[in-house]
Amino acid sequence: MKKYIASVFLLLLVFTGIGKVTLTFWHSMSDYQKPIIDRLVNDFNRSQNEITVKAIFQGSYDDTVTKLKAALLTGKGPDVSMINIEHLQIFTKDGSLLDLTELLANDPAISPEDFVDNFWTTIIRDGKPYALPFNISALMLFYNKDHFRAAGLDPDKPPRTWEEMEEYARKLTIKKASDSRPSQYGLLWGVDAMFYQFEPLVWQNGGEIFNEDMTECVINSAEGIEALERWQSWFLEGLSPIDLTIDEGIQSFTMGKISMGPMTSGGIRYALENIPWDLGVAPLPQNKQRTTTLGGASLSIMSGLSEEKVKAAWTFLKWMVSEKNTLFWYEGTGYMPVKKSAMESLEIQLIWQRFPQLKAPIESIEFARPRPVHTNIIEIRNILYDSIEQVRKGVTEPEKAFNEAVEKVNGLLK
Predict the structure, then answer these.
(1) Using CA atoms, how far apart are residues 116 and 331, in angstroms rounded to an integer?
(2) Residue 279 neighbours by CB under 8 Å, 6+ apart
(3) pLDDT digits (tens, 9 = 90+) for 215-244
(4) Which pLDDT does position 18 carry in this prediction?
(5) pLDDT band at 19 (very low <50, low <70, confident <90, very high)
(6) What is the pLDDT of residues 160-183, one digit of tens each?
(7) Which pLDDT tens digit goes with each residue over 43-83?
(8) What is the pLDDT of residue 272?
């Protein structure tokens, strides 16, 4: 009789889910990326009977920071969260994230050496890992191959330098009259509030945005000001539309009214599925130096969880970054595989055959740079963004804009 009751109880556990660990997972993947991440989470839930993960979209990376701060104050935060790599510092300083050192040391199935070196450095703070890399992207040059052909340019030879890009943009810009608005712009180099698209211009011109220990903003160097002046010239010459927001510009690019511009590799598959023309993807044109920006996010476990939840969360993180799943995520979005084994696999070669545009970001890894990090990074980049917007709109001259921005930023770095 006791055996019968025990058997019935076990069956109830299996079929009702009683006894399962339930994890709440916050993420920032919307639109085209959400179905892919939902598929990964659903596959994980079906792959075993001990853990259920509930994935909840929280808005943009910045929105997630705001919501996470508020939730942590009330003790109602998630168990696992996707956190932008430049935002990790905000939550490691106050102890909100679990240091993964011990979990890694005690798990022979996973090691820091398994990850692409450049990606692993993005999750280290004070010498400790507080996340596993997951959706890492690189800023790439997207371009319209059909426009290139129509302008007499080789669609398989995108611009390699700023000078070439400017030359191409002049050929690609179409005006019906010298004083009219172009019906087609050769270039879109808008910058969003995350300052993402401007960072590599400073680096490519031989400058830095901050000093090495992030105690001083140095973007007002000669190299930084020169980069801002060069960027401004693309609007003044009419190569890039001056009156469009970044979102409006991307929409115009998608509609075939703009020929090229910097965009995240995480949007390659979306572009391929929604653009009715031939898309090219290439490394950013270089100037004095060759570089691009690493963006994206990682997966962290919140501190203060029970031992049972930590074990479950670790199982989930490992599953998400497995070779199979990091390749699935890469092919479905354009965010790069985070495991070295995935980079060296036969499957990635097959992916490149299906979607050759996905190869260019991989070739950019060796010269890509992680974004600057600081506990006040959101406020800092808002200041920097506002400064270049004033230049773009013709309100302020480049040198004055950066000098004023540096003074404000340095107050936040102290």
Answers:
(1) 17
(2) 142, 143, 144, 145, 268, 271, 272, 357
(3) 999 999 999 999 999 999 999 999 999 988
(4) 54
(5) low
(6) 999 999 999 999 999 887 777 899
(7) 999 999 999 999 999 999 999 999 999 999 888 899 999 99
(8) 96
Token pair recorded at residue 382: 């808002």
256: region left, alpha or beta (phi > 0 left; psi from -120 to 50 alpha): left
CA 274 vs CA 57, 186, 248, 326: distances in Å? 23, 20, 16, 23
Spatial distance between the Cα atoms of 76 and 49, rounded to a whole number of angstroms: 25
pLDDT, one tens digit per residue, over 314-353 is 999 999 999 999 999 999 999 999 999 999 999 999 999 9
Work out whether the CA dihedral 302, 304, 305, 311 comes out positive or negative.
Answer: positive
